[in-house]
Design a protein that fits this description.
Length: 397
């Protein structure tokens, strides 16, 4: 099958992992893909008007990045304006590549993929990784909130299939007005090779000088809503333990300041961004893998790393996490409104290595049982495209 894959993402965080994971899996399965994506910043700056349009191509906005009202308005107008050159790119790609379908990664104010799919009578799948209009509006990042939500809903309702990453997000999209008959849940995935690699737990612990220490670990892009400071009081009471953070992000400086103020700077280790093959070795070296907080709709990629490395995961009791976590079976949940619950569950896991091993083993089996790999998601995408094509044929479209 020939698939035209469209996105606006430039970031190198989990969004890029998702894009590369699904694209790679579709290609491994023998499908041809043409990618329509933002040009490198240098090329765009050299293009006429490119510097003004560049703000529209940075991928999904994050809470708190809206800026002053005037800046937010200009950003949103740029996001709308970017549909003009982007539609031209898609039109050219359709004529050259002659795809069987368009797969578009949703970005707010993006209308071009729906327009091109309709113009060429092509099935359209739109992947939604966050309820962007709701998210940006809630965090002060939208000047034209009502219009953005109405446009987002209209665009998604023009798709043949709307792919979301959790059932919790599916409910949010349906409540916003997206037809629930269009919505399909594909949880995030993992590279299949992660299950076949031999992980170097002891070697990594020796390299990091963690041999005799209790290591609590976290993987991912570090933002304030992760609430990593939640573990700091526990570290104060347990001076032999440490928190290892694999990743970078805008909250690092704040966390380092809080750790210093609490007198535990040496117990909080930021390891920075690592090569993909190094990440799982580090996760395997954790004693307990933490996710102190999560957005209400996310399908956290870090949880899959924890599963693949067979680590005991401690997570907040949120509906979207319960889609994958059976408390006490493949992970341990705590009351997110009670920091004492969080600390007590850490104590429980640290004191019981057999519990940690059992949770880790069951977590790893969850990947296989639920098909939480990019290859499995690629097959789900192909099935959705085939269903859309068959339905169009049956309706004489």
């Amino acid at each position: 099958m020939r698939i035209l894959y469209h996105h606006r993402t430039r970031s190198r965080d989990g969004q890029r992992v998702h894009i590369e994971g699904l694209v790679g899996a579709l290609r491994r399965a023998g499908h041809e893909l043409e990618i329509v994506e933002p040009r490198p910043r240098r090329e765009q700056a050299e293009a006429a008007g490119g510097a003004k349009l560049g703000v529209a191509t940075s991928g999904a906005a994050q809470p708190g990045d809206g800026g002053p009202p005037k800046a937010s308005a200009l950003r949103e107008l740029a996001e709308l304006a970017y549909n003009v050159p982007e539609r031209w790119q898609l039109q050219r790609a359709v004529r050259r590549f002659r795809p069987d379908a368009i797969y578009s990664r949703h970005a707010l104010y993006t209308t071009c993929a729906a327009a091109v799919a309709r113009a060429h009578d092509l099935p359209l799948l739109i992947e939604v990784n966050a309820p962007l209009a709701q998210e940006r509006s809630a965090h002060g990042g939208l000047r034209f909130a009502a219009f953005a939500r109405k446009l987002e809903t209209a665009v998604l309702n023009r798709a043949d299939r709307v792919i979301v990453v959790t059932r919790a997000m599916a409910a949010m999209m349906a409540a916003q007005g997206v037809a629930d008959t269009l919505i399909e849940v594909h949880h995030n995935g993992l590279e299949p090779e992660a299950l076949s690699r031999t992980l170097e737990r002891e070697k990594m612990r020796a390299q990091r000088h963690w041999d005799d220490r209790v290591v609590l670990g976290f993987v991912g892009f570090v933002r304030d809503w992760n609430r990593l400071e939640r573990v700091f009081p526990w570290l104060v009471r347990n001076p032999g333990a440490l928190l290892a953070v694999v990743g970078e992000g805008p909250d690092r400086a704040r966390l380092e300041g809080l750790a210093a103020a609490a007198g535990i700077p040496a117990q909080v280790q930021f390891l920075g961004t690592l090569r993909r093959e190094q990440v799982l070795d580090h996760v395997a070296a954790f004693d307990v893998a933490l996710l102190p907080e999560v957005t209400a709709y996310a399908s956290p990629l870090k949880l899959l790393d924890y599963f693949a490395a067979a680590r005991a995961a401690l997570l907040p009791d949120r509906p979207n996490l319960r889609e994958l976590i059976d408390d006490g079976v493949n992970g341990l949940l705590f009351d997110p409104a009670d920091d004492a619950s969080f600390a007590a569950k850490i104590d429980l896991l640290v004191a019981d290595p057999q519990l940690r091993q059992r949770l880790g083993t069951q977590g790893r089996q969850t990947i296989v049982r639920l098909g939480l790999t990019w290859d499995a998601n690629a097959q789900r995408v192909i099935t959705a495209i085939e269903t859309a094509r068959a339905r169009r044929g049956a309706h004489g479209q």
